[in-house]
Amino acid sequence: MKRVKYVLFILIAIISGTGCKKFSELAADPNKPSQGTPSTIFTGVISQAFSFDPILGYEVRASQYLVSDNSQQSDQAYLWTTTDYWTYYDILRNVEQMRIEAERTKAPVYAAIAKFFKAWCFIELSKQVGDIPMSDALKGIEGNYAPVYDTQKDVFKNGLGLLEEANSDIAAVIQSNPNVVISGDIIYNGSALKWQKLINSYRLRVLIDLSKKSDDADLNVKGQFATVFNNPTQYPVFTSNDDGAIFYWYDKEGNRYPRYYVPTNMDYYRFGSTYMQYMTQFSDPRLLVVARITQNASDAGKLPGDFTAYDGISSGLSINDIYNQKDQASALNVDRYSTTTGEPMIIVGYPEFNFNIAEAINLGWVTGDANAYYQAGIRASMAFYQSTGGNISDAQINNYLSQAAVQYNGSLTQILIQKYLSFFNNSGWESFYNIQRTGVPVLAVGPGNGNGNKIPTRWMYPQTEYQYNATHVQEAIQRQFNGTDDRNGQLWMNQ
Hints:
Blueprint: H1 23-26, H2 38-50, H3 58-62, E1 66-68, H4 85-104, H5 108-129, H6 152-176, H7 192-209, H8 221-229, E2 245-247, E3 269-271, H9 273-281, H10 285-290, H11 295-299, H12 319-324, H13 334-337, E4 345-348, H14 350-362, H15 370-387, H16 394-402, H17 412-422, H18 430-438, H19 463-468, H20 470-481
Antiparallel strand pairs: 1-3, 2-4
Helix pairs in contact: 2-4, 2-5, 4-5, 5-6, 5-7, 6-7, 7-8, 7-14, 14-15, 14-17, 15-17
């Protein structure tokens, strides 16, 4: 995987140009530009869209990879309310400005990528709350401050359409200029082909996210998946870890691993039993990279290479019980996660891509060797750890795959479990979405979870919508959840 610089906290402020030129415009303040360059806006869009701080954050606790043993660090109770609702629309405003500047400067590659980010923002937000303003959104300049809500189905349908257009548009750019280099690109160092691969690989993720709607004739989920999968020339996709959308951290101001500055906080987390049960059962060599042996195991004289020296704690326990039992559970590997460079952050990765293909074959959407993709997903995940300082040998990988419990036997559950294991500390909320969609793995419930011993299924709409767009948000709530806006409402995509 090629390392590229990640600029984490870049701030982009775009002020739209006005009509006829006046003297004041001729004497414009250079610190307040009326126009931007698509490349500069592009850098900011990437940073905004891909930097929701999924690193060892709440995402890993919600999917029960980790539990917190310190109440000051926030426990694992599923008591969330709203999400980063307005952040997505802030990103979308910058995406729209990038499109405008791309058209003004005749730089169509940025306009193509703008369609990808537009689809990304709308789809990812919809996966969290359900119906959202899409077709009527971002029209404040026209005086529309109360946009109508699109159904979740329409959000996905239109988002998939945008991804189709993005692929066609960027393909046209590459055809006309095979040597095109995209300035401002902090993910792929200017490669238009790799952005095209991301567009199509992300599209396959979205289609897998819609597996429960695979028989919807209007969406044509299975047909779309087959079209992309069976036409790699028209729809190039990931072929290695090097194609994945990955942030690398560097020991430079503003680019350091977000958790490095609080190494003591690493001791506030323990691995959850939901994740650890598979890692120890399979003697997974990735465990030796991410975790420390338990304190009890250390006291007993066990060594890091002994898989019996690792264990987890149920996320369903109360914070007090977790604290009292923390010595019997493994903590994070400080040497990996408390450094300035930490662990690279996968946004959309090659391991997930392979598991998505394996799942589609298993479901009968396309033909192919599900086992080959299943094994490729495992190998790609292991290779990621190898390339980022993890001491995993090829022999260990081969031994792992040779185990009877790991060898693919046609079970969809096997694919989903391995996909879950590969998602540790990467890909944001995608692991949680997969669990909601499939029920694999089964999450622990108990007094520590709050929420009436239920795992939430969505986030609620922000209070500002009730203040400024009450009619339309209430229409959306009534349409989806019989008038009740809470975290336990079932999204259309998972019904």
